[in-house]
Amino acid sequence: MASSFRSLVEDENRYLKSFRLFLERSSEHQCMQDFIQGVLPEIFTKIGNGKSSLNVIGVGSGAGEMDLQMFSQVRLKLPGITVNNEVVEPSGDMLFKYKVLVSKTPNLEYIHFTWNKMTASEFENHWKERNLDKKIDFIHMIQMLYYVKDPEATVSFFRSLLSENGRLVIILVSGQSGWGKLWRTYRAELCNTEISQCVTTGDIKTFLDAKGIPYTNYELPSKMDITECFTEGDEKGELLLDFLTEVIDFSKNASPELKAGVKALLRHPDCSSEEDGRVIFNNNLGVLVLDP
Ligand code: CQA
């Protein structure tokens, strides 16, 4: 039963350890960077047309690496524009890292940062209390909608803040990724936690289609080398398994049946391919760009 599992998300240090290994073993950041450099510039050109200042919100920005990469594209496409950037991030450690990164990066004087150490839903209350009718030109949510209670309500609220030409960018794992298959198969065992949801861009697309909300979908190919997961007792393999299941010490805490089932599915062609004797998990990301 999943209720006997402890979620990896409850232990931030441990999460970060397995997350760092995931980043080493996957092309996750590379494929996001390709998107930021390949697709976002034309979007920035459209939203910045005729403006002297851009209002931006980063929801769950973490340490800000992706944010600053986006701003360097803003700078290239919209020279001379100023930016008001609201950063929404509940982790004080992450906000601190973000501030350090900003202080070390030259030429960011055109950006004004507002630091909101809070969750997306706290930010929603904060915004409504201030009764702001301010409109936002660009909002991004990168790999964060898993951690809200109601992903659809969160999308609806932030979309309601968009200016006439504004865009909301959502990045999650794709419904067609190995994650999607894993979650559809083991929903009862792996997905009934309150702090983290098994949501993909496929789920968000279903919601947007039902509401008639227009969007553009991009699929970003991404891989994760999970070969070590199949060496019993391998320390890194166990960390990767914890990341994949979001369970602390999955190998120790799961029943033998669940462990065997999950491992068999992870290397099944529905989730992974074999390349040069390595097991390569499909970590494809989906991007949804929403119109106002
Ligand atoms: C905590 C929880 C989640 C984090 C985090 C810290 C996270 C990134 C960094 N720090 Cl306490 N989440 C994250 C990052 C990448 C990523 C996913 C989540 O691909 C997606 N999950 C499901 C596909 C991975 C388990």
User: What is the succession of H and E elements?
Assistant: HHHEHEHEHEHEHHHEEHHHEEE
Q: Strand order across the biggest sheet? A: 3-2-1-4-5-10-6
Which secondary-structure class do the elements indicate? alpha/beta
User: Using DSSP, what is the number of strands?
Assistant: 10
Q: Which range does the strand content fall in?
A: 15-25%
Helix content: 40-55%
The biggest sheet amounts to: 7 strands, mixed
Distance between the termini: 42 Å
Total count of helical runs of at least 4 residues: 13
Detail the poorly predicted runs: none
Cα-atom radius of gyration = 20 Å
Overall shape: globular
Q: Report mean pLDDT, rounded to a whole number.
A: 96
Bound molecules: ligand CQA
Description:
- There is one protein chain.
- By secondary structure, the protein is α/β, with parallel strands linked by helices.
- Helices cover 44% and strands 22% of the residues.
- It contains 13 helices and 10 strands.
- The protein has helices at residues 12-25, 28-38, 40-48, 65-77, 92-104, 120-129, 151-159, 178-185, 187-190, 201-211, 235-245, 250-253, 256-267, and strands at 53-59, 82-88, 111-116, 136-142, 162-173, 215-220, 223-225, 272-275, 278-282, 285-290.
- The strands form 2 sheets. The protein has a 7-stranded mixed beta sheet, with helices on both faces.
- Helix 1 (12-25) crosses helix 11 (235-245), helix 2 runs parallel beside helix 4 (65-77) and helix 3 crosses helix 4 (65-77).
- The longest helix is centred in the N-terminal third of the chain and has 14 residues, at 12-25.
- The model has no long low-confidence stretch (mean pLDDT 96).
- The chain binds ligand CQA.
- The site of ligand CQA has 13 residues, from helix 1.
